[in-house]
Amino acid sequence: MRRGVLFLAACAAMLAGSAPGQSRSYLGFDKNAYPGDDLLPALHRTFAYTGYWLNDPPGLRSNPWDGKRAVVRQAGFGFALLFNGRLDQELRGKDAAALGAADADSAAAAALREGFPAHAVIFLDQEQGGRLLTEQAAYLGAWFAQLEKRGFRAGIYCPGIAVADGASSISTAQDVRARFPQVKLWVARDQCPPAPGCVMRAASPATSGFSDLVVWQFAHLPGRNLRALVGRVMRRMGIAMRRVWGRAFWI
Questions:
Q1: Do 207 and 194 form a contact (C-beta atoms < 8 A)?
Q2: What is the mean pLDDT of residues 24-52?
Q3: Are 160 and 209 in contact (CB under 8 A)?
Q4: Residue pair 23/13 in contact by the 8 Å Cβ criterion
Q5: Residue 226 to residues 31, 87, 109, 191, 239, Cα–Cα distance (Å)
Q6: Do residues 47 and 245 touch, judged by C-beta distance below 8 A?
Q7: Which residue of 24, 120, 136, 240 has the fewest C-beta atoms within 10 A of its own C-beta?
Q8: How far apart (Å, rounded) are the C-alpha atoms in residues 158 and 32?
Q9: What is the SS3 assignment for 142?
């Protein structure tokens, strides 16, 4: 992987120097709490990139990633930019579209403040699964549109596991793809199969069920002590917080 702008777009999956039709995949991790400056070198023994929060991650009242771009990049990591969106209860009875546009402005401002370039992809974190409700769709649509106006490219982190929907079933990723086909997908789908389990390799997107996704989160190990896991990295390359598949992107 290289420094410089190689973010996700129609052509960004093609690596400079790669033969036509080839792309590479990289193993990364995503964690709400910042792991600490001292752990980055050990983590980079296994992971090529990390999720990077632009606002308060889910469950936190402040953003521990704030101001950490330089040290994370110096450790050799690429970035998957994340912005924590709003839950449905925060949208009901309000102007969801206005909130979406305002949050997109905040996301763009945070990315620029951190030193990320325009045209980078920012993934909006949509935690709730299933078909989008009316207010959720309005919020997402406004967020995507406003972010594009601010010069960034829109992505979404969302569940890829289907849930009951009347007589059928649907996942958030499927609904988003139908409504907003231009948006880059980061899909969380850790069911085994198709997920390969906690393995130390970048899983093939062909097995994810979403042929056009950008990042596939295929395993999640909650409630584990990060320092203990780093010890495993250094001993036998066996650490994982979240195993995600992703095509190459550097900022």
A1: yes
A2: 88
A3: yes
A4: yes
A5: 10, 28, 30, 23, 9
A6: no
A7: 24
A8: 15
A9: helix
pLDDT class for 195, splitting at 50, 70, 90?
A: low
Residue 51, domain CATH? 3.20.20.80
Asked whether residue 194 is domain-assigned, the answer is: yes
DSSP letter assigned to residue 203: P
- 141 part of a folded domain: yes
DSSP 8-state symbol, 132: P
Domain that holds residue 185: 25-247
Is the confidence at residue 1, as pLDDT, over 50?
no
Centroid of chain to Cα 132: 19
Confidence of residue 191 (pLDDT cuts 50, 70, 90): low
Residue showing tokens 């699964």: 129
Number of Cβ within 10 Å of residue 74's Cβ equals: 11
Sequence-separated contacts (24+) of 204-211 with Cβ below 8 Å: 204/25, 204/245, 205/25, 205/245, 208/160, 208/245, 209/160, 210/160, 210/173, 210/177, 210/185
Q: Does residue 218 lie within any of the structural domains? A: yes
Domain count, the chain: 1
Across the chain, how many H-helices and E-strands are there? 6, 10
- Strand pairing class (49-53; 25-29): parallel
Is 10 a member of any domain? no
